[in-house]
Specification:
globular; 2% helix; Neuraminidase; four-stranded antiparallel beta sheet; five-stranded antiparallel beta sheet
C-alpha cells in the first residue's frame, strides 16, 4: 500500500518485524518505545522478557536483553559520542540509563514530592537536555500515569523540582511523554499532555513558553522530529504531521472509531493494513523511513518506507 503525503510517498509495511515468540510476549508484548541508532539499527522496548530488542535496518534480530515487564518509555542519548538508552518501567517504577548491551549506568530515585505521601507514582518517559543540543544535561521525568507531574533532576540524578502544568496552560492530565525539540536552534522540551489533547512547551530552565494542539490533536503520545516537521503518534488512532510552526499538515492512517469497538486495542479483528490501531511512539531513520510502534498485545511495528521521488 502506498501513502502519498506532504512528506513524500511511503510504502506501508505492516508488521515490519514480529516480536520474539515468548510466553510473556504472547500475554503482553505491547510495543511501547522505538528509536533508531546511528548505524540504522532499530531498538524496540516492549512488555516481555527480553524487553529490549535490537534489529538491523533489514529487520534481522541482532540482540535482545532485559526483564522489564512494564516496559514503556525509551529514549536515545549520546554521551562522549557513546549511544545510551534511558528505559522507564511502569511496573518497577524504574528509570535507568543503560548501554546498548544492557549494563546499567544510572538509576533515578523516586522524587521527594509531597504528592507521593499518599498519591501514586507511575513514571512513563524521560528526556535529557543533552549538551550536544545546547542543554545542560538536566533530566526530565514524566509521571504520566500516577500523579501527573514532570520532575527535574540534574545530570547526576539530584532532584531539582517539579512541574504540574499550572505554571503553563493548566494542570497536566496524563503528561505521557517528553521530548527535547531542537528545530528552532534553542532547545525546548515538549510535554505530551495527552489527556488534555495538547502539548505544553517549556524552556530548559522549566519556564513555560506556550501550548498548542487544542482543536486538532486528540491523544498525543509524544513528539518526534523529522527535519523541520513533527510527527505526533496519537493513541486514538493515527499519525499527525505538523509543520515547522506546529500547525497541522497531514493526518496519516487514522482509524476513526476503532477505540469504540469491543476489545480495542488488543482485539486484532480491528487491525488492518493502512490504518493505525493504537500508535504509541515513532522514530525516523537517516533515509527518512518512519517506524511506528503500537500499544497492542503481541506488539505491532509498522514501517513507512520512503519511496524516492
Amino acid at each position: 500500500m502506498i501513502l502519498d503525503t506532504p512528506l513524500g510517498k511511503f510504502r506501508w509495511i505492516d508488521n515490519w518485524i514480529s516480536i520474539p515468540d515468548t510466553p510473556s510476549g504472547k500475554i503482553s508484548g505491547r510495543t511501547h518505545g522505538i528509536v533508531v541508532l546511528r548505524d540504522g539499527s532499530v531498538v524496540i522496548f516492549h512488555q516481555a522478557d527480553p524487553a529490549l530488542l535490537i534489529y538491523s535496518a533489514e529487520g534481522k534480530l541482532l540482540d535482545s536483553w532485559g526483564n522489564y515487564t512494564g516496559a514503556h518509555g525509551l529514549t536515545l542519548v549520546q554521551e562522549n559520542n557513546e549511544e545510551l538508552l534511558w528505559l522507564v518501567d511502569l511496573t518497577t517504577k524504574e528509570a535507568v540509563k543503560t548501554t546498548l548491551s544492557g549494563s546499567v549506568r544510572m538509576k533515578l530515585q523516586i522524587p521527594p514530592h509531597p504528592s507521593y505521601v499518599e498519591g501514586k507514582y507511575i513514571p512513563t518517559w524521560l528526556a535529557v537536555a543533552e549538551e550536544r543540543f545546547g542543554g545542560n544535561g538536566d533530566l526530565w521525568l514524566a509521571d504520566g500515569y500516577g500523579s501527573y507531574l514532570v520532575h527535574r533532576y540534574d545530570r547526576t540524578g539530584n532532584y531539582l523540582g517539579s512541574l504540574d502544568g499550572t505554571e503553563g496552560a493548566g494542570r497536566f492530565n496524563c503528561p505521557h511523554a517528553l521530548a527535547i525539540d531542537t528545530r528552532r536552534g534553542v532547545p525546548e522540551f515538549y510535554v505530551a499532555d495527552r489527556g488534555n489533547g495538547r502539548f505544553q512547551v517549556y524552556a530548559m530552565d522549566g519556564s513555560y513558553r506556550r501550548s498548542f494542539g487544542g482543536g486538532f490533536l486528540n491523544t498525543p503520545d509524544i513528539s518526534v522530529q523529522m527535519g523541520p516537521n513533527l510527527l505526533v503518534p496519537e493513541l486514538i488512532a493515527g499519525l499527525t504531521v505538523l509543520d515547522a510552526d506546529d500547525r497541522p499538515m497531514a493526518s496519516l492512517g487514522f482509524n476513526t472509531g476503532v477505540n469504540a469497538k469491543e476489545g480495542w486495542p488488543n482485539d486484532r479483528r480491528w487491525v488492518s493494513e493502512g490504518l493505525f490501531n493504537s500508535p504509541h511512539s515513532a522514530a525516523v531513520d537517516s533515509q527518512g523511513n518512519i517506524y511506528v510502534v503500537e500499544w497492542i498485545s503481541g506488539g505491532r511495528v509498522i514501517k513507512l518506507e520512503r519511496i524516492p521521488s
